[in-house]
Amino acid sequence: MTFGLAAGFALLPLIVLLAVVVVTTYNGVVALGQRIDKAWANIDVALKQRHDELPRLVDAVRGVMAFEREVLEEVTRLRSAYREDAPIAEQGETSAATSLAIRSLFAIVERYPEVRSQENVTSLQAEIRRLEDIIRDRRELYNDMTYRYNARIAQLPALFLAGLLGWRPRPFFAAKTAEATGSRPRM
User: Fold this and answer.
1) Where are the domains of the chain?
2) CA gyration radius for the chain?
3) 66 by DSSP, 3-state: which?
4) Mind listing the pLDDT tens digit for each residue in 122-141?
5) Dist CA 120 CA 57 (whole Å)
6) Crossing angle of helices 2-62 and 158-165, rounded to 10°
7) What is the DSSP letter of 55?
8) Is the pTM value of this prediction over 0.85?
9) Which of 65, 68, 96, 104 could bridge 177 with an S-S bond, Cβ 3.0-4.6 Å?
10) DSSP alpha helix (H) spans, the chain
11) Distance between CA 45 and CA 63 in Å, rounded?
12) Tell me: the pLDDT tens digits for 141-176?
């Protein structure tokens, strides 16, 4: 009986250590998941802000740029293609295509001094550029957090918990369109 009790006491530190490792690993992975969700929410806010600014810019340049209709229609089409409930990969492709269309629109605006000189067009361009920069920075943070999370659940000891708890790799905010031209994934 004393041998069984002594063996139990000898295993106690090992059991405590195992519990600490499991709890620490679980909490670390959950915290990374929360950071990804927060980073995505920040991207979503910037995408919505850009989404709201685009019609104002299109309206401001529409009259003067009537013969550049294709570019204006593309910006409008991509704006209407934005769906906040779409998977992250689809939103990434839409975001990248929208960024490309915006760059095309800005390039065309530069060719028209009468449009370029309008104060509202200049301020709208500046605001959209600011939002594009914010989206780019937030996408970088999101992808960094996603990388950390995906790496963490692929390593020991989190790998064991990932299998038990159904943790799956999160998608990056990147799309084929974005890689080729200039984009976000959904969980």
Assistant:
1) 27-181
2) 25
3) helix
4) 898 999 999 999 999 999 99
5) 8
6) 70
7) H
8) no
9) 96
10) 2-62, 69-81, 88-110, 113-116, 119-153, 158-165, 176-181
11) 30
12) 999 999 999 999 999 999 999 999 999 999 998 755
Q: What is the dihedral of CA 50, 52, 53, 57, to 10 degrees?
A: 120
CA distance 103 to 129: 9
- 3-class DSSP state for residue 168? coil
- Residue 6's Cβ-side half-sphere holds a number of Cα atoms within 13 Å equal to 3
Amino acid letter for position 117: S
- Which of these CATH numbers, 1.20.1440.20, 1.10.3720.10, 2.30.29.170, 1.10.10.10, describes 27-181? 1.20.1440.20
Stretches in the chain below the pLDDT threshold 50: 177-187
DSSP state of 173: S
